[in-house]
Structures are given as C-alpha cells and as structure tokens.
Batch of 2 targets.
Target 1
Amino acid sequence: MSEGLETEVKTNPQGDPITSAAPAPSSQGGRQDPHAEAKRQQEVSPEYMFFEAPREREFITGSEAAKEAVRRSNVDLSIAYPITPQSETMQLIGVLYGEGYVKEYYRGEEEYGVMSAIAGGSRAGVRCFTATAGPGTLRGLEPIASWPGHRLPAVAMFTCRVVNAPLAIQPDNIEVSYLLNCGMIVFHAENQQDLFDYIMKGFIISEKNDVTLPVGVCCDGFFVTHARGYCSMQDRGLKLPERDSWRGAVPVLDAENPPARLSRDAPVQKSNFMAYNIHAVWQQEVWAAVERSRKYIDQYMGGLIETKDVEDADVLLIASGSAAAQSREAIRMCKDKGIHAGLIKVKSLRPFPTRELRQLCAKAKLIVVPEFNYVGWLAKDVATAIYGYSKAKIVAGPHVYGGMSMPVEMIFDEIECGLTGKKSATVPSSAIMGAVDQEAVAHFMQNI
Amino acid sequence: MSLDYVKFTPGFGKFMPKEYRDMVEHGPFGKKVSVSQVGTFKEILEEHPMCAGCAMTLFIRLAMVAFPNPEDTITVGTAGCGRLAISQAAIPFVYGNYGDQNGVASGLTRGLRLRFGDKPKDVVVMAGDGGMADIGFAQTLHSWFRKEKFTTIMLDNEVYGNTGGQESGMTNRNQVLKMAPLGKKFEKMDMLGMAKVAGCAYVATVVPNNPRRVESVIKKAVLVAREIGPSYIQAYTSCNIEYAIPTDKVLEDAKTVETDRYKFTEYITDEAKEYLSQLYGYKEYLPKPAAAVEKQ
C-alpha cells in the first residue's frame, strides 16, 4: 500500500477501517465478483509466510490486525457474537466473509452457542476462528474448557475486559486466569503486531499432529483492540495452507473414518460412569500435548518469552500483554536513573516458560511482576516456577484493574522500593515474596 | 468414499473382532434396509446399558434403522439416558457439553458442507426433553430460526431420567416428580408449535410402538434437512422407571398415551412436499391429479 493512500485513509476515523472491503477497480462495466481478490490468493508454506515473505508496515488497530491475520489464514468457519471490546474484530471478520476470504460465517445466539458451534466446526475438520471478551469468555467457558479434551484445533481470541460485578467494559485481564487451566494453549499479545502474528501462528501450532489443541490468543481490550500500532504484514494475496483434517491426533467426525465409539472402543465410558483411570490418562495426554507445543512455539514464535536487557540485570520485570509494553518504558526510565533493569516478556502462558525463567532469574536480585488484574495470576505462576532457583525478592505488583491505566512511574516506584526497602505505596508487603515477612507472603499465596 | 471406512484394509479382515466383521458383512451400510427386515441384518445399535423395557432404546434403534444413509450419518447428543445407547452405535456420535447439541450440530453441518459440498452428510441431533427444551433451549430454537440443515429428534420421556427423575419443561402439569414435590405448576412446553413458528420444514410426533411410522418420519425428516431446512421429531419415549410403568406394559402405555395426548401429527411445508415427491418419489405429496385437471 502506498504511503499516500495510507495517510489519506488513516485520517478518516469515522470512515470504514482502512482494511475493509475496498471497491474493486471497475475498468469494465458490469458486476464485479466480490470474491475475485480472495480467489486469487495463493497458498504458501507457513515457513515462507512467517519468515521469508516480504512485509509492509501499516498503522492499524488490534481488531484490524486480527482481521488481516484471519485474511491470510485460510479460515473456513468463523462465528461471531458481539461484546465490547471484541465486537469490531468479529464484524471485520464478517467483512472478510463478504469478500470471500472466510468461507462460512454467522452471528450466533450467545457465547455458549458460539463456542459449541466452533466445536462442531472443528470436529467437521475445518479451520475455525472466533473471538470474545470478558463475560463472553466466561459464558462460553464450559464449551471452551472442553475443546482441549475433545482435541479440537481452533483459534479463539480473547480481548480481555472486566468480568466481575459491578459490570464494566474496562480493560482488565482477570479472564486469562480462567483460561490457564483449561488445557488449551494460551498466548498473550502485547500489541497489534503480536496479535497479527500469534493468530496466524496459532493456527499452525494448533493443528500440529502432536498438539491438536485449541489456541487462545489474549490481548488487553482497548489498549490493543482499539488503539493503533504499527503492524508488518505479508501481502494479502498470500494465505496459509488449508487445514489438513486427516493430520489430527483424533479422527474428525466426517463419517470418512471408522467411528470411535465413546462407550465401547475408547473405552472412556461404561454405562453411566467414566472409567476414572481412562479420564486421568486423557487429562495427562492433553497436558502432554500442551508441553509438546513448546517446540513449535520455539520454531514459529522464537520462543515462549522475549527478553530485553536481561544480561546481568539486577532487576527483572516479568510481564505479559500490555503490562509488557509499560514495562519497556519502565526499563528505559531505569536506565536514565542508572538502574540496570531488564524485561522478560512472557508470550506463551500455556505452556509456561518455566525452564527459561529459572535460567534467566538465577542471578536477579529483584523481580517485579506488573499486571492488569487484581489477583496477580502471572506473579503466582512466576513464583511457582522459579521457587528454589532464584533468591530474588519477587514483587507481585503493581496491579491495576477495572480500567485503570498503569503509569510507567508506578512500575518504577516498585523497582525503587524493592531495591531500597522503602515501603511501597501500592503493593502490600504481603504481596512481596522473598527476604520479607514470610507469614505475610503465606497469606498472599493463599489468597490470590 | 465414506463406504470405504466400513471395509477392511486388504489382509486385515481375518484379524478383526467377529462383531466388526459382522458389521461389515451383514450391516446396513450401503444397503437399503427397513424395519420389516430387522433380524436379518446386523443393526448399528445392538448392545446398550439401558434399563429393561426402555421405550427410548426401542425408538433409538428404530430411528437408526431408518437413517437413509447410515454410513454418512453423524449423531449429536447431550447428557441424558439417550446418549448411553446412541454412543454405543457403530456410527459417529458427538457427546459435547450440557445442552450444546444444536450449537455443535450447526458448526458440524456447516463444516461438513464446506468440505463435502452437495454430498449428503446427515447430521442428526438426538437428545432428551431436558437437554432440548430446558438447558439447550436457546441453541435449539436459534438453530431452527437460522434454518440450519439438520434433523433434531427429541427423546421425550417427560422427565430427567438419567439424573434420577426430576421435573422437566416437557413434564405434564400437576405431575409430581423430584423437584416438583407439589406437582408441576405449568404446562408441558409446546415445542411442536415453536418448531413451526421457528421455521422447521418438517415436524412430526411419534410413539415407538408403530415401527413403520417411526421409520417413515425419520426418513422424511433426514431427507428434508438435507436440502430444505431444519426438521423436528418429537418422540414419546416413556421412562418406565420414573413413571413406574411395568416392563411388559411399556408399549401398552405408549399406545394409551398416543391415543390420549400424543397423537401422530405431521407438519410439512409445501416446499418440502415438492422436494420429497420430486426427488424421492413420495407419491403422497404429489399434486392431486384432479386439481391439476381443474387448472387445465
């Protein structure tokens, strides 16, 4: 796209997003095929798409980045249901359906119905995408939590927002904590570029034979979905190979395979009762598949984490999503003030980068885990992962929630307090682990 | 193509279990079978863990005999007694979450149509009254309003049988059951009326004691769902345990209930009539010759 055109459309905030259906050039009269451009898309290998294909940079919103990712992902079925701040994403997928980039699309009845239908589509052997947010995630959680056990590849995007009462639509990523224990793969996107990349790579990782699991791509609502950022994207004439449904770890239900009889052949069930040992083995296998996805995350996403200035750093910030973006600024502020701080951005929450964190945190003196939620789900995972591998003091905070923003100074204050022993203005002493009041820490660990 | 999955890979047949060999050699796949031939071929549902005298099991068995293309049929269900039998059948069965069957079937049907185009892949939902009229109500109704092309069959035993006999929306008024200690306080839900309002192209009620009729409505419902739109069958499949019907009186009860309040009804749109008569030779739906003469 030329610079001139980009600038022109960008300054039209009330108009269609720049990536919506562009009118086809009508050099000859008569009706144009609205699917003409989609039909010309060429399939390329994931390796070419991710590592070799030339990219162009555009300044777009997170919703538009998700749309552009889906455009290039050869998606068969997408099901939408509106909820703020996700609505724009799924209505843009509707535009893609109109243009023929997505083959089937409809607006479902509510999230339980949508997530159930995604399960049906994935079982039919087609590539499925949906997105939801906050209360929608929780409404759909029963079917979502069953996707991994049914070994259903799909990508679902979660544009996190408040879920608790009193109801609000503000950014808050508490819903991620509910997704972490489903058995699905969970990525957390920092910005528009991450969202674009993680969705496309998510499809490929999700459909690997030894994975065959759904992938959840989370981002912090509004900060990523509604704000614009630079996003480098491959030509829209390229798309990933279609889903090869024969490759799954379990047969798809297309009546082209011998049927697996749930009750007799598995044998998962007998009469009314689940054989407990079979169910136990099944759960182990789901989580083993999560583990096996590590090598593909390394291969396609360059690892479960991304680091900045961590070499010999006294202070490490460990963050995911928008908190990672704010932490980048915080380490810059530290540098100005002569403190050597580094950043570990956690890209993949499931599988969790336990090995990587143990190695990187071994010599750190202070670890600060800023989060956009009250409970501190990331801090708890970090502390569990590095316990016994690091003597660092771990600050579970600062936390903002319910729509608060996280000023860079807020993170910097925690670094300063952590290093000097000064009392923090926002993080209670019970949320500071290591070299402090153990009783208070025990209280924190029991209550998050 | 799909018939291949019920054949053996050359050389492997003799190693397969006898039951599997029987299914391949004497099963209904790729043949036209009817309920009058039961006993002469191996049915896709034989063993099951259901209670003695269960009318629901008889109905499910008959329904499966009636499937026009069993080798290309996928069943979808939810928690309840029915799935204990359905999941034993030699055709694929999706057992997802509570009340999700019509949502799953929507995605499944659309996905299969994307992959296989016009080649029929029949999706048949079979779930209980609780799963359909209560917990799965929204998804059931919305799948009909969206005109999803699959068949929905309610196994209506008018009670939550599998969880031990609680009131459902399809229980009759005043019936005393668990969770309805003083008797149910509202009417049996009119799912047939709702099916028509929501746009089902074929709606029928049956009881299992008339196998030919069961066969007839199931065949029509599945065929109509292929091309015309959603179809709904509501089958009275009594729970002899919770309603204390003696095992040898189950069919008698079905007959009584049929006469009393579960009469055979059939609703079919003109479009579905034309489709069945033109494509599948259903003479009963051909335009009346006399009327044709009048027009001339």
Target 2
Amino acid sequence: MSVPSTTPRPVAGESVWPRLEPLLPQVTKPIQYVGGELGAVVKDWAAATVRWALMYPDAYEVGLPNQGVQILYEVLNELPDVLAERTYAVWPDLEKLMRAHGVPQFTVDAHRSVRDFDVFGVSFSTELGYTNLLTAIDLAGIPLLAADRTDADPVIVAGGHAAFNPEPIADFVDAAVLGDGEEAVLEITAIVREWKAEGSPGGRDELLLRLARTESVYVPRFYDVDYLPDGRIQRVVPNRADVPFRVHKRTTMDLDAWPYPKKPLVPLAETVHERYAVEIFRGCTRGCRFCQAGMITRPVRERSITTVGQMVQQGLEFSGFHEVGLLSLSSADHSEIGDMCSGLAEQYAGTNVSLSLPSTRVDAFNIDLAQELSRNGRRTGLTFAPEGGSERIRKVINKMVSKEDLIRTVVTAYTNGWRQVKLYFMCGLPTETDEDVLEIADMAHEVIRAGRAATGSKDIRCTVSIGGFVPKPHTPFQWAAMERPEVIDARLKLLKQAINADRSLGRAIGFRYHDGEPSLIEGLLSRGDRRVGAVIRKVWENGGRFDGWSEHFSYQRWVDAAAEVLPAFGVDLDWYTTRERDELEVLPWDHLDSGLDKDWLWQDWQDSLSEYEQDDCRWTPCFDCGVCPAMDTEIQIGPTGKKLLPLTPINGLKLPTPQ
Amino acid sequence: MRFTSHRDFARAFERALRRAGVPVAFSQGFTPHPKISYASAAPTGVASEAEYLEIGLREQVDPAELRAALDAALSPGLDVLDAVVASGGSLADRIEASHWRIELPEVDPRVLSAAVSAFTTAEEVLVERMTKQGRRTFDARAAVIAIDVVAPTETPSEVAGVPCAILELVVRQVTPSVRPDDVLSGLRVVAALEPPVPPRVTRLAQGTLTAQGAIADPLDADRDGATIGGH
C-alpha cells in the first residue's frame, strides 16, 4: 500500500509565487524575479495548446534587453493558442534558497514552473552560458541528460549564435536551431501543435523525429559521432532513417515583414540596455575573418528606412524610452543610414530622445552622421573597432581600415564635441607578434595627439579596450591555433608599458583588457565536440555558474575539470584550443550548414595567412562564399530613396481611452 | 511592487511621464534631468499605499487629466490616486510621520502584544543598522508615536490559513529615520521577538501630524484656494 503524499502534486501551470515570495527579501535585487514588465504577456494556461518557456541564460539585467528573446516572445504570444513566458538565470543566493525550499526554475511572467511547458527554448549568444543552462534544467526538475527525459519533460531547444556548434551541449539539449528564429519557432510550434492534437503519438521520440525531418532542426541524438584513434572525429552520421545528413540554418529574408519588437519589454529593474533597439539590417559581408556573426548571418538584409521610422515611433510611444539604438553588425553600412539618422533627429528634435549606433565602422563614420547623432544634446558613447594594431594584422583579419581613416574619424568625433571615444582591439590573433600589438600604443598616441591639435584642448580622452581572440566555428579561423594565455598576458603588459611610455599622452588613454584565461575556455567551448559536455558538467557540479562574469568565473575549475575528464578520450584542453587543425580534419560542426562553403572558408584562411584582402560583395563581385546559392537567398539592400516625414507633433496628455 | 527599489521606481516613473505626454520641465546642463522630487520613499521590500512626489512642468495641465494620463501609463500596481497644483512650500516639509502595517506570519498575537508592552515601557530602545555613514546605533523608541497590535479583521494579503499577528505603527520622520525594520529590531532587543518568516510591511499613509497624533493628507493644504499655474 502506498502512503498518501502529504503535499499535493502541483497542478501544471500553477504559480509558484506564494512559495517564491517569502524567499525574495533574503536575496539581492529581488525585483529581477518579479516580472510585471510593461509589454509582458500573461495568458490563460488552460486555453493554450502550445506553451514555450524562453530563456536567456544570464542574469535578468543582461537577459531582459536581449532582442532575440523579445522578438520570439512577441511573435509566439501573438498566436491565440500559444503561450510564451520568459525565464532567466537566478543568482547563486536565490538558487540556494530555491533548492532548500523546493522552488523550481520559474518564469517571471506568471511564475510557472519551467518543467510544465512543452518547449524550453534557450538562446545562447555566448558559450559561457552553458553552466547556467545546467542550473536551470536541474532547478526545473528536468533530468540533466536529454537521454533520461520522459514525455513529462519539455523539449529543450538551443538557439542563438552558439547553436551553430551545439555539440558541447549535445548531451543536455534535445534540439538546436541554426539561424533566424522568428519563422523557426512558428514551424516548431506547428509541429508540436499537430503532434499534440493527434494525441502525442510515439511520445517524445516521435516529436523529435518530426522536428529533425524539417532539416532545419538539429536533434543530436539522431547522429552518431565516431572518433579516430588519435582523438579526431572520423565521421558524424545519422542513426535513423529520414534524418538529414546535414541540418541547414534558417534565414528570414524580408525584415519589413517582421517588424519586431513592436512592444518592447520595459522592466522596473535596471538592465544593461535602457533603450528602444531596432535592427536596421541583419548579416554582414565585410568579411572580417574572426567574426562569426558576420559569417553565419549572411546575406545582408536591410530593413527599409520607412519601416525603421515606423518602428521607432511606435516603440518609443509604447515604451517611454529616451534612447534609440540602431542595431546591426555595422550600422553605418546601411545604404540609407544618413537619411535615417537625420530623419530621426529631425522627428525628435527638442524631445531629449537620443540616437546611438552601437557598431560603427571607422571608415563609414562621417561628420554628417556625427552631427545627427549629437543633435538632441546628448552624445551617446562612440566605439570604433580597428581590431588590429598593425596594418599587417588588419590584412590578416581582413579588417580593411587604415590608420589614417581611424585618426580622421576620431578627430571628427572630437571636433563635434565628443570628449571620449573607445577603441576596441583584439589580442591573440593568428600570426600575431608583439610588434603587432605594440602598434596599438602608437595608434592611441596619435589619436590623442591629433585630437589635441584639432580641438586645441587637452580635455579629450580615449579608452583602449582589448578582447581576447577566440576562433569560432564557421569562420576562416576555425582551423587556427589559439595563443597561450601567458603569451597574451605578457603582450598586454608590454602594451600597457608602451602606452604609458609617453606620460603626457598616456594620461589621456584608458586601458581595459581581460586576461587570456577566460578566452581559452571560451575557445574550448566554441570549438568543442560532444566530449566537452563532460567537462561542462564537471565544472557545473563543482559550482561553476555565471562564467561570463569575471567575479564568478574560475579558470582553475575549468582546467581541473578538463584534466579530470578529457584524458579518458585521449585528448586535453590544449588539443581543443592551441592546436591548429588541418584541411581534412572533420570539424564537430561540419554536419551543420551555415551556407558557407568549406572550401571557400579554407581558401579565405589561406588568403589570410598570405595577408590577402577580400572585398565586400555589396560593392564588388560575388566572391563565392556559398551562402546565397546554398540557402537560396540574395543580398537585399537599398537605397529605397524614401525619406522619413516629420511626425505630427502630439501635444498634450495622452488620456486613457474610456473602456 | 514591494521589491521595487526607489531607483527602479524613479526610472519607471520618468518613462511613464514620457508615455503620458506630460510636459515635464528639465534641468539645465549637459545631461538634462526631468524635474521630479520624491518625498520620503518607502524602503525596498516594503509595499506602500501612500507615496508622494512633486513634478515641475513647462506648462499648465489639468490635475485630474494629469492623474488619469499618468495612471494609465504606469505599470499595474503603480497607481496615481490624486494630483493637485502645488501652492508653494516644500512637500518634504509636510511629511512629518508615516503610518505602517506590519504582518508577522506565524507569530502568536499574544507574544507580539507582550513584546510591544516591553517596547512601550522602555525609555529608549537602541538598535543598529547599516547606513550610508556605516553602522550606526540609534534609538528606535522615541520616534514611535503609536504601536498597536490589531485584530486581523480580514485575511492578510495573499497568505491564507496561517496564523498571523498584525502590528500598526505611527512613526515620526526623524534623522536617522526610524523604519519599520528598526522597530522590529527594537522588538528583538527588548523581547527577543524573532519572526520565523520575513514580515510584510505596508505603508498606509504619510503626511502632517495632527495634535491628536493622526496623520493628515499632505496635499490638503493645496486643495483649497490653490493658486493656478506650474512652479
């Protein structure tokens, strides 16, 4: 005879708030767990047929502004029979309390247990969120390993840029989607809806099989990986009939047809970005060889000036934000960026709404743009990214920006009233020497010298910010060896000395950098294969959380876990990171199709080593990267020739319309 | 809403001003700020039914319309109850005392009554709290004008079926301010009262203190014969 349980089994979709609320006074920033954002949607659980929990696996303050999650949240919730809620990584203080009190991973919208949902979608911008994924799965009460899950568990789907190589998390996720999400989530929803309507035939396995058959959802369990005696991959092959050999990325072609977010989430809590952000285009063909985002989001697809104008107007009216971010991989490259900025500046003149272009190429910034950006009084920060210190290394990475361009651009900014600019560089690039990095100091010195000469003022500054290079899948550098952290750290030390060698100039230059160790771990996770999953799990079991946060990241924990786990497979941390791959090696992501032709990538890698530059296909002939024919897509750029019309000024109070 | 910090609220309020189209005045300078002054904000973790603030405007608006527009623009849970045209003088000066309700789930009302008696009979109850100046010790007794254990006339918010003692407090605005948690610390000092679960605190009212020890609406002074026009 069974003993009746004293606690009643929780009802699916029931709020855990009554159990969560008493814990909140005991944690930092409890507001981040409360929800109630403007734009948040709470729907009736019982009335929905397909239910999604969407996660950005970082703290609320970082995850909430994420465009991808906001777009999918809105697209899904627009469907009458679909419910989508959001969940974020909880800080270790709350995690501890949740474990002690049996509170599961919850959504912030209606505080429902994540385990109750049909699909649990996780968006990875960076691999450093992997340990947070494990925390969320475990707190949700879902088995950590996909193989152990039952029909009572949600299907866990990874998306975002890191999903272009989901192999390190293949043990933990049920599926991964490559590329643009808005149409993909609708297709997945339709498959889940149909399968549920049929009475869930064949259970979880059948559902995953149906997803895999779309050829755009990767289901790791349907692929076997064989290894060679030396540790390299021999092959990756489907282990089921009708599962495709390769899984293709998704591309949303007409951005004007998908004008999201329409109702941006406006939180009560403070977050990293407090602005209405609109993507003005996707994709980039500048061809920077280190840039995974530029490679995997091709081709360039512009959103038209008129759609951008309309989105900004509605987004600001809805949100009350006073900053507009025009996002893309290189915003000044939009074919109508000038008209867009002047039109918006004109429309919002005298309102204290400011404009920002988060990614601006040195060679595409000019005086007109500078003036439009600063017209409403407030100057948002300007960051330029020459990426490499020397002309030679910029040829290697195909960042075709000259020193003269940089000086001219920064001087333009200074003479237009900016007193501070940020310059971004990378360290640890392929073929890099100490001299390449030391030239950063010369460049910064010259920036200050020219800025002082042009403004006649000593009150100008620049910040040199250095990031560690991490070779990424689906880029020409996917074969490259990483530099050792000690070498990087030594170079950065030399650079710091060189910057401060001239005390007058050095005083005006800020220097910010990260040491080489976190980059090495990011490198392990970026180019890892399924065997790296055991390292992630070990790190997580040893307390690894929030690896993207320097105060939580522990290099030693990763090194120890790798040393404990990897020798059994005949490989080690160096094998994944500082080892150069050869042309014929099967890479863990070769069966995942970003559209890029592997032969072209190899050729571009060889061109890189011979310092040969590749032009942008928007202005010169196609260079056959393979994306357009493989994905049946094409470049979509303007100009449309349209202008933004002045807005009719809306004066007076906006009174609520009587119900 | 109780977990909203003052900074969070201020940000949300400024956005609501923009959404509602309120012609708010801005400070001069490199980064203009809207002219808003907040009076005696409730601590984070405390709910409130009575918060007050002043807004400087560029042009005159109808207070009733301002109230309706702002209320509609704010998130649910943040409600604008009233707006009046200020007749001069500082709003902060009219906030002399606050009325609080403290729910103490799983605390026996008799135990609470005994602790309150000990508190009221004491001349002085020294408590410690971290302030911006560091750890400070101050008296939590003198500022307390009234402290009563009240009968739970209605079910305390959101928690059902759990015994719960309820305390009502009227506390004078002093420096350093004596907050509800300081009074609870005081009860711990005098009677070793340790609530097993975090108490829920709500501010019921704040305003001018009448001779009878009651709290009057600080906006009353502006209601009759108020001068027309912004300030």
